[in-house]
Amino acid sequence: MLSEYREVFLEELEEQLQLMDDVILQLEQEGETERVVQDLFRAAHTLKGSSAAMGYEEMKQLTHEMEHLLDLVRSRVLRVTGPLIDLFFQSLDCLKELQQDIMHNNETITDISKCVRDLQDFGKLPDEQAYNDAEDLPKPALSLDTTLKVKEAEDQGLEVYWVTVQIAADCVIKGARFYVIHSNLCHLGEVLYSVPDIDKIEVEEQGDTLLEVQFLYAGKQSSQELQDLVAALTEVEHVKVEALPVERAVLAEIGTRKQSESINEDPSNRDKSKTQTIRVSVERLDHLMNLVGELVIDHTRIDQVERTQRRQFTGDSLEELSQISDHLARIISDLQESVMKARMLPIEQLFNRFPRMIRDLSRDLGKDIELVIGGKDTELDRTLIEEIADPLIHLIRNAIDHGIELPQQRELSGKQRKGTLQIRAAHEDNQVVIYVEDDGAGINPERMRQSALSKGIISAEEAMLLSDREAVHLIFRPGFSTASSVSDISGRGVGMDIVRSNIENLNGLIDIETRWGHGTCFKIKLPLTLAIIIGLLVKLNDQTFIIPMSNIAEIVRITQGDIQTIRGQSVILLRDEIIPMVWLHDQFNLPRGEQKKDHIQLVIVGSAEKRLALAVDELIGNQEIVIKSLGSYVGKVDGIAGSTILGNGKVALIIEVSGIINQ
After folding, report:
1. 294 annotated active-site
2. Could you confirm whether 394 is annotated as catalytic?
């Protein structure tokens, strides 16, 4: 075993498995095309070679059998059908199990014998899987040279057809017969191209595999005249004549040629083709990010020292210190941006996991669902991409199971039978926003109230006081479910509360917009990175705390008379909305500072649908902060997300807003 290459192999394996997943889906959705089949064949061939080199015989055997079937498809001996696509997906799942074996055990232990037998049995070509009609043959792509010939024939007023000829199976010398057919077509008009190439067919060929040939023909005959002329030739079993969509083919090919010519003419583009990349371990990037974080902290301290010195002294040395500090700030900012970009990945890497899952769930539930993905180029920190995967899977599964109705139900409601699920991402206000939206039944607020009431999650009094928006957000309560029966997909009373808590642990927010009968949209807001954030520094007595800006809705100033009490809870009325209010001091057992001013500073924070007004002594300002863990010695503290080092060298605690709200 070449253990030193194991990590490189696993990286390539992940890439090739994702490629195979995408390509098999394309094969199912777009049909059999030469490009898609070739892409899948190349991926299987690559994995066969690399797994053989690493000594993983089971993976080599499985990809070999896949490659054999794909070779039959490429040779137009085997046609792509639903059962074949299902078999490819089954094989892909086996490959993924083998991948997990290698990752965790460094050897393959999954039994692949059934999958291998299924692949081998499929290769025995039952009649319904083979090409049994000339019209089943896909049309090959045309080269630039052939495309120009087609354009020239069109300019001469000739008709261009694909002529697919199938000869009798008992024909003695098939190669010679096709050569005669080719000669007859050349007398009638001009043969621009043939598959296979007629010049490469041996006249004495006796094999049984050559039963059909496709000719690209240009002539003056109508399609019916040409059909009759070829059908009358000796030993011709079947003929199909199809007009070529000349304009579309020519325009596409000429566009490709122009693009190719522009690349060849521009020396800078030829240099770009030589651009190389290197693989860097995640640990190195994390270490580099930590070092940048230390630089950010040290620069903050230098800036603090400069301000302190400027209050006490004057002179040229202070101006020089100021210039050095400014220059250092620019360098650290550029370095930080570069390191963050190195950690960023397009969210496409996450979104690519979903089409296969949605396909399988739709089939299991008997639903017809179209997936629309947008914003795949939106970049997000690699750590966040991994952490947000499970919450998104929960949302997607719920949308398919609960949100989108069965085709017959949609039809009765006046909708199209096919439902639509949209997953898209975008950058908004230095955050990444992910939308999961369906055009299904929506969420019924009244049903939510009744379900929560029957499960004892809320009391009858609470149910009466809930607004429709608050009733919809009951979906995030632990143990809540409206499913009438338990299934493998949903209905176990877990899921949505985990979604919210996971997102809040990432300093994110989740919100719901829904219309009963029209659909639901979940909106997730996430920071670009977890390592460095923008925070608001506030004073509680003599201590400094930091509130993440991503959780802050607004900042207001009130007087003591604006505070009211409802059932023992202090509240304020802000734009006709009642918002609970707490003194942040009380959460951490700190004495409240002496109120020397007439007004009270309130920071309005939010988590999902909830809002809370935090009273603080003083607002210091915004600052870029590096999040540091409290460490295993201190452990998890309710209401505290971590800590950071301030410019004066002191430690400040970072508020966990969701924890404060839950308290």
Report:
1. no
2. no
